[in-house]
C-alpha cells in the first residue's frame, strides 16, 4: 500500500503543490506584477477578494475563469486531432521532467554521519536511504530530463503545423530550429560538469556539491564551472522560449507564433507549459550548478564550518531541521532563478532571428566545446 | 553628385568588454532590479510608480482646462446668452444649435429658447468661448466630457448647461 501511496503523494505535492502553483502564479506575479514594478507601474490590482487586492492574485483566478468560458476555436482546414492534442504535448514534458528532480536527499532511517576528512560525504549508519523527496530515483536522471525537455518541441512544431496558418507554421519552425541549436550547446556545456561529477544521477550530483574546497568553499557547479553556468543559463533561457529568445512567438512579426490559432483553455495550456518549463529549467540549473538542496555548511548531522562541528537542538531534531532547511534552500533557489529569468525577460530586448542563430552556433557552441576541452585538460593534469 | 554634402557618421564600435555581453547584461539587470526593489518598498511614498489610480484618485485639471461647456447666468438667474449666434457661427464642428426667442423684458432683445451643444461632435477648440461677446458661454467647468451610452445623452441642452453655470463678473449691457 505504502509503495503506491508514497509516489502518489510525492507526485501530487511536487507537481500540483509546487510546479503548477509556481507556474500559474508566475503568469501573474512574474509576468505582470514584476514587469509593472520594473516599469514604475502598479500592475493589475482591480480583481478583489472581499475588497482586498492581495497583490493581484485574484486576477489569475479571474483569468482562469475567463479562459474556460471562452469559445474553443479550431480553425477551418486545420487538423482537428493534432490541433487538439498539441497543447497536451507541450504541457506534459514540462511536468514529466520533474520526476527526477530531487528536492532533498534520501531519507535515512538510521543516523547520518558527515565525514569531514572524506570531503564531507554523508553516510547513513544503521539504516538505509529511502527516497521520499524526489518522485523517481533514476541513475541517468540528467539524460531523462534532457530527453523530456527536448520532446516538448514536438508539441510546438505540431501546433504550428496543425493550425493551417502561416504564422503558426513559421512559429513552429522557428521554435524547432531554436530548440535544436540550443540543445546542442546546452548539453555540451554540461560535459565539463559531468566530467567533474562523474555521474548522471541528479541526486548524486547534488551530494557531490556538498563537498568543500579547503573546508570553506562549497564545491557548487557554479564554482567549479562558472563558464558552463552562463552557457547553460543562456541556453536554458533560449530553450524555454522566453524573452529575449521568444522568437517563436514574436508578436510584431508572426502574431503569436505557434499559438496564434489557439483560444480558450488550449491557449492557457500552451502558456502555462511555457511557465512550467521556465520553472523546470530553473530547477535543473539549481540542481546542477547551485548545489540543489545543499546549503553551505549545513549538513544532516549539524553545522560544519572551517573544521568545527556543532549540532544545535540535538541530533534527532537537527535532522528534521536540516531537512526543512534543505527543502527550503531548493525551493528558494528555484524561485530565485525563476525571478532572474523574468528579470532577463524584462531587461533585454528581443534578438533578431539571425542573431539568435549566430549566438547559438557561433558563440555558445564553440565556447561550450572550449569549456569541455579545458575542463578535460585540467582534470587530466590534476 | 559632387555637390551633395555627405556627413560621415562614425559608427560606434563596441569594445570587447561590451561585445562579451555579460557585463552589459549585468548592468542592465542592475538597473531593472533597482527599479523593482525600489517599487517594492513598504513605504508607498518612496516608490516611484507613476500610475494614477483613476476612479479612486481623481485627476486635478489645470485652471485653464477646457472641459464641459457651461452657460453663465445673469444676476437674476436668467440665461446670459443673447442668442447672437456668434458661437454657432464660429464653431468649426458645427455642433451648437440655437433658436432665438423673444424675451418679455424689453431691455433684453433675444434669448435662446433652444440651445443645444452636441458634446460628441465638439472638438473642444474653445472658439465659442472666444467668440461670445457677453461672457455667456464658458468651458471652465473643470469637468471632462462624461462617457455616454446613448448618442442622445451627449446633447446638452440649455437648462443642463445652465446648471453648471454661475454668475459672471462682467456687467451685462454696461459700458466697456
Ligand atoms: S469648443 Fe469648439 S467645437 Fe466645441 S462647441 Fe465650442 S466652438 Fe464648437
Ligand atoms: S453663447 Fe454667447 S456667442 Fe453664443 S449665442 Fe449666446 S451670446 Fe452669442
Give a topology summary.
The complex is a heterodimer of chains A (382) and B (176).
Chain A: H1 2-38, H2 58-69, H3 80-96, E1 107-108, E2 111-115, E3 121-125, E4 129-130, H4 141-162, H5 166-197, H6 202-208, E5 212-213, E6 217-218, H7 221-224, H8 226-239, H9 251-254, H10 264-289, E7 298-299, E8 302-305, E9 308-310, H11 315-347, H12 353-381
Antiparallel strand pairs in A: 1-4, 2-3, 5-6, 7-8, 8-9
Helix pairs in contact in A: 1-10, 1-11, 2-10, 3-4, 3-10, 4-5, 5-8, 5-12, 8-10, 8-12, 10-11
Chain B: H1 16-19, H2 22-38, E1 70-71, H3 86-90, E2 96-102, E3 110-118, H4 127-131, E4 137-138, E5 155-156, H5 158-164
Antiparallel strand pairs in B: 1-4, 2-3, 3-5
Bound molecules: iron/sulfur cluster (2 copies).
One iron/sulfur cluster binds at residues 90-93, 95-96, 117, 122-128 of chain B.
Q: In words, what does this structure look like?
A:
The complex is a heterodimer of chains A (382) and B (176). Chain A has one domain (82-381). In chain A, 62% of the residues lie in helices and 7% in strands. Chain A has twelve helices and nine strands. Chain A has helices at residues 2-38, 58-69, 80-96, 141-162, 166-197, 202-208, 221-224, 226-239, 251-254, 264-289, 315-347, 353-381; strands at 107-108, 111-115, 121-125, 129-130, 212-213, 217-218, 298-299, 302-305, 308-310. In chain A, the strands form four sheets. A three-stranded antiparallel β-sheet of chain A has the order 7-8-9, with helices on one face. Chain A has a two-stranded antiparallel ribbon with strand order 1-4. A two-stranded antiparallel sheet of chain A has the order 2-3. In chain A, α1 (2-38) crosses α10 and α8 runs antiparallel to α10 (264-289). Chain A is globular and about 65 Å long. The N and C termini of chain A lie far apart (50 Å). Chain B folds into two domains: 16-46; 70-164, 2-Layer Sandwich (Alpha-Beta Plaits). Chain B has a three-stranded antiparallel β-sheet with strand order 2-3-5. In chain B, strands 1-4 form a two-stranded antiparallel ribbon. The radius of gyration of chain B is 28 Å and the shape is elongated. In chain B, 18% of the residues are buried. At the A-B interface, α1 and α11 of A face α2 of B. Bound molecules: iron/sulfur cluster (2 copies). One iron/sulfur cluster (SF4) binds at residues 81-87, 98, 131-132, 134, 136-137 of chain B.
Amino acid at each position: 500500500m505504502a509503495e503506491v501511496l508514497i509516489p502518489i503523494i510525492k507526485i501530487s505535492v511536487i507537481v500540483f503543490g509546487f510546479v503548477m502553483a509556481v507556474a500559474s502564479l508566475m503568469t501573474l506575479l512574474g509576468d505582470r506584477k514584476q514587469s509593472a514594478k520594473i516599469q514604475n507601474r502598479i500592475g493589475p490590482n482591480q480583481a478583489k477578494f472581499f475588497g482586498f487586492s492581495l497583490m493581484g492574485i485574484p486576477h489569475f483566478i479571474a483569468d482562469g475563469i475567463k479562459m474556460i468560458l471562452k469559445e474553443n476555436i479550431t480553425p477551418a482546414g486545420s487538423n482537428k486531432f493534432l490541433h487538439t492534442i498539441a497543447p497536451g504535448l507541450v504541457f506534459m514534458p514540462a511536468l514529466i521532467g520533474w520526476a527526477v528532480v530531487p528536492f532533498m536527499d534520501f531519507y535515512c532511517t538510521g543516523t547520518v554521519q558527515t565525514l569531514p576528512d572524506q570531503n564531507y560525504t554523508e553516510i547513513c549508519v544503521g539504516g538505509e536511504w529511502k527516497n521520499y523527496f524526489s518522485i523517481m530515483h533514476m541513475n541517468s536522471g540528467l539524460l531523462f530530463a534532457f530527453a523530456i525537455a527536448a520532446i516538448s518541441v514536438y508539441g510546438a512544431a505540431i501546433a504550428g503545423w496543425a493550425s493551417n496558418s502561416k504564422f503558426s507554421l513559421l512559429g513552429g519552425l522557428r521554435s524547432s530550429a531554436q530548440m535544436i541549436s540550443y540543445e546542442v550547446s546546452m548539453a555540451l556545456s554540461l560535459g565539463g560538469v559531468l566530467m567533474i561529477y562523474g555521474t548522471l544521477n541528479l541526486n548524486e550530483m547534488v551530494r557531490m556539491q556538498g563537498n568543500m574546497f579547503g573546508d570553506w568553499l562549497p564545491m557548487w557547479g557554479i564554482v567549479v564551472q562558472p563558464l558552463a553556468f552562463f552557457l547553460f543559463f543562456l541556453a536554458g533561457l533560449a530553450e524555454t522560449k522566453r524573452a529575449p529568445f521568444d522568437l517563436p512567438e514574436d508578436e510584431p512579426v508572426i502574431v503569436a507564433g505557434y499559438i496564434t490559432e489557439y483560444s480558450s483553455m488550449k491557449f492557457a495550456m500552451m502558456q502555462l507549459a511555457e511557465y512550467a518549463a521556465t520553472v523546470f529549467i530553473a530547477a535543473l540549473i539549481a540542481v546542477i550548478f547551485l548545489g540543489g538542496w545543499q546549503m553551505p555548511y549545513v549538513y544532516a548531522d549539524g553545522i560544519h564550518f572551517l573544521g568545527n562541528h556543532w549540532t544545535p537542538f540535538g541530533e534527532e531534531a537537527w535532522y528534521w531541521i536540516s531537512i526543512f532547511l534543505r527543502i527550503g534552500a531548493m525551493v528558494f533557489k528555484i524561485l530565485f532563478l525563476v525571478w532572474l529569468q523574468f528579470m532577463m525577460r524584462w531587461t533585454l530586448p528581443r534578438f533578431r532571428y539571425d542573431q539568435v542563430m549566430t549566438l547559438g552556433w557561433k558563440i555558445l557552441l564553440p565556447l561550450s566545446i572550449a569549456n569541455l576541452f579545458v575542463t578535460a585538460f585540467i582534470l587530466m593534469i590534476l | 553628385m559632387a555637390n551633395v554634402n555627405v556627413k560621415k557618421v562614425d559608427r560606434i564600435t563596441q569594445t570587447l568588454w561590451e561585445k562579451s555581453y555579460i557585463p552589459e547584461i549585468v548592468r542592465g539587470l542592475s538597473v531593472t532590479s533597482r527599479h523593482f526593489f525600489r517599487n517594492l518598498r513598504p513605504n508607498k511614498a518612496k516608490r516611484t510608480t507613476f500610475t494614477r489610480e483613476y476612479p479612486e484618485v481623481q485627476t486635478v485639471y489645470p485652471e485653464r482646462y477646457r472641459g464641459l461647456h457651461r452657460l453663465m447666468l445673469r444676476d437674476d438667474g436668467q440665461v446670459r446668452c443673447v442668442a447672437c449666434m456668434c458661437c454657432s457661427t464660429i464653431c468649426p464642428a458645427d455642433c451648437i444649435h440655437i433658436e432665438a426667442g423673444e424675451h418679455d423684458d424689453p431691455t433684453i432683445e433675444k434669448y435662446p429658447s433652444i440651445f443645444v451643444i452636441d458634446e460628441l461632435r465638439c472638438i473642444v477648440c474653445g472658439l465659442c468661448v472666444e467668440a461670445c461677446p457677453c461672457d455667456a458661454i464658458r468651458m471652465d467647468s473643470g469637468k471632462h466630457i462624461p462617457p455616454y451610452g446613448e448618442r442622445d445623452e451627449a446633447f446638452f441642452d440649455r437648462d443642463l448647461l445652465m446648471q453648471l453655470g454661475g454668475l459672471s463678473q462682467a456687467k451685462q449691457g454696461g459700458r466697456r
